[in-house]
């Protein structure tokens, strides 16, 4: 991990250099390949879709089997651990309770012949991308389906690659538990294109959610506008703020937990003690070989890991806002001052007994969070992402009379004669 001292003259320049080094390189070729996939599926529908699934996923699909059968969806029952499934049920319960609080309320304003209001409606159909392969994340299914259900989405579609012919049994169990039955065995950019533009076998949706590889991410960017998308997910990241009173082994595991996600994941420690940071590094070296993803952790921490040394941890707030991390774990002795002064962060974890893993799995908060600095303008996934708002205006003649001259005055400034006519014609009729 690279050590940066906040007092050095070029601190922010050096910090930015490391942050920028994580950005994707050579994406033009990926975008070109994805553009061709999208174009072919738009033009040729299922014919192109089935071709790409065979070519890229090694899975022979057709009209009769691309929709996963009820028999396959129910095939998990002798393949799962009951206790593990109960843990997932607790996650569903807590996630439901947390997200129910997010559902917005309609409102009206009445004022002298004018009624204005706002009404919320669920998006009618959404597509959820569920990755498969090296990493499988049943918990992400919970984080997407639960708020969609609370919002009232009627049609929830899941797409997931199935190259091995055996979908993870816990994915199947959660699909059953969450009552999602429209599930297609298709992945990659071809799945995103099918959800956006529709084919004979897959009806298009209104908005697409879920993480994926570079091709999935590129496809989501390219179909945006035809459909909505949730966010562009980058590699995972965390900032841990800890002082000399913390246990270095605990802090070490918090940093490694994010690093094991991806070679480009980023773990940052902010501390006021160089001595403590050295203890954390020693703990990492002692613990890392116990983890199966040790090579990924070493690559992540070696290339993108940072230790920032401050004289006063109160200065951490400005650095945190500059980075705008996905996760922030404040486990220093007095975190409130930092907490009250930060604005840009996805999820916040307070205290040494609140490791980020609890937010990933069980406490109910959503683990789909903004990355790569996008916490400066966006929030984690929630119920509102599955809804849309419409405004309502209703006026009687009294309200019209009260405001009509104001509208005419403003149309004159903007030279919109049609707008003015729609007001004047009513004035004439009333006379």
Question: Could you write a compact summary of the structure shown?
Answer:
This protein is of the alpha/beta class and 431 residues long. Helix content is 45%, strand content 16%.
Describe this structure in words.
This protein is α/β, with parallel strands linked by helices. It folds into 3 domains: 2-22 and 235-364, Nitrogenase molybdenum iron protein domain (Rossmann fold, 3-Layer(aba) Sandwich); 27-229, Nitrogenase molybdenum iron protein domain (Rossmann fold); 396-430, no CATH class. The chain is built from 17 helices and 14 strands. The chain has a 6-stranded parallel β-sheet with strand order 1-11-10-9-12-13, sandwiched between helices. The longest helix is centred in the N-terminal third of the chain and has 19 residues, at 82-100. The chain is globular and about 85 Å long.
CATH class of the largest domain: Alpha Beta
CATH architecture of the largest domain: 3-Layer(aba) Sandwich
Strand arrangement within the widest β-sheet reads 1-11-10-9-12-13
Strand fraction band?
15-25%
**Tally of separate helices:** 17
Rg: 26 Å
Quickly count the domains: 3
Sequence stretches where pLDDT stays below 50 over 5 or more residues? none
Biggest β-sheet: count, sense, barrel? 6 strands, parallel
For this structure, the CATH topology of the largest domain is: Rossmann fold
Distance between the termini: 79 Å
Arithmetic mean pLDDT: 94
Shape: globular
Number of strands: 14
Structural class: alpha/beta
Measured as a percent range, the helix fraction is 40-55%
Oligomerization category of the chains in this entry: single chain
CATH superfamily of the largest domain: Nitrogenase molybdenum iron protein domain
């Amino acid at each position: 991990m690279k050590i940066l001292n906040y007092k050095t003259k070029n601190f922010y320049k050096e910090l930015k250099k490391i942050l920028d080094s994580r950005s994707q390189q050579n994406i033009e070729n990926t975008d070109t390949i994805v553009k061709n996939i999208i174009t072919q599926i738009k033009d040729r529908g299922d014919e192109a879709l089935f071709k790409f699934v065979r070519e890229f996923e090694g899975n022979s699909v057709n009209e009769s089997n691309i929709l996963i059968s009820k028999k396959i969806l129910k095939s998990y029952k002798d393949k799962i651990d009951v206790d593990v499934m109960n843990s997932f049920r607790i996650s569903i319960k807590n996630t439901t309770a947390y997200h129910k609080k997010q559902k917005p309320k309609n409102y009206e304003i009445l004022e002298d012949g004018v009624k204005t209001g706002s009404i919320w409606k669920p998006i009618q159909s959404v597509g959820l991308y569920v990755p498969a392969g090296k990493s499988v994340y049943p918990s992400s299914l919970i984080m997407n389906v639960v708020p969609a259900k609370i919002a009232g989405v009627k049609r929830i579609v899941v797409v997931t690659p199935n190259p091995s012919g055996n979908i993870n049994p816990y994915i199947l169990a959660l699909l059953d538990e969450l009552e999602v039955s429209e599930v297609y065995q298709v992945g990659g950019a071809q799945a995103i294109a099918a959800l956006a533009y529709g084919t004979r076998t897959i009806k298009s949706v209104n908005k697409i959610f879920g993480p994926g590889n570079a091709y999935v991410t590129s496809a989501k960017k390219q179909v945006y506008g035809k459909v909505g998308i949730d966010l562009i997910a980058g590699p995972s990241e965390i900032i841990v703020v800890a002082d000399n009173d913390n246990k270095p082994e605990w802090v070490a595991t918090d940093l490694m937990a994010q690093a094991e996600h991806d070679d480009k994941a980023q773990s940052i420690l902010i501390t006021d003690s160089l001595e403590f940071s050295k203890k954390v590094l020693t703990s990492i070296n002692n613990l890392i070989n116990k983890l199966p993803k040790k090579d990924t952790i070493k690559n992540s921490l070696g290339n993108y890991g940072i230790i920032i040394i401050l004289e006063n941890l109160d200065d951490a707030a400005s650095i945190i806002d500059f980075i705008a991390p996905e996760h922030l774990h404040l486990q220093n002795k007095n975190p409130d001052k930092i907490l009250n002064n930060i604005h840009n962060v996805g999820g916040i974890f307070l205290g040494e007994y609140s490791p980020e893993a609890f937010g990933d799995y069980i406490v109910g908060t959503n683990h789909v969070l903004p990355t790569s600095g996008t916490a400066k303008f966006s929030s984690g996934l929630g119920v509102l992402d599955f809804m849309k708002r419409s405004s309502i205006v209703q006026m009687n003649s009294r309200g019209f009379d009260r405001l009509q001259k104001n509208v005419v005055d403003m149309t004159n400034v903007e030279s919109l004669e049609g707008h003015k006519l729609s007001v004047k014609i009513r004035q004439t009729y009333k006379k």
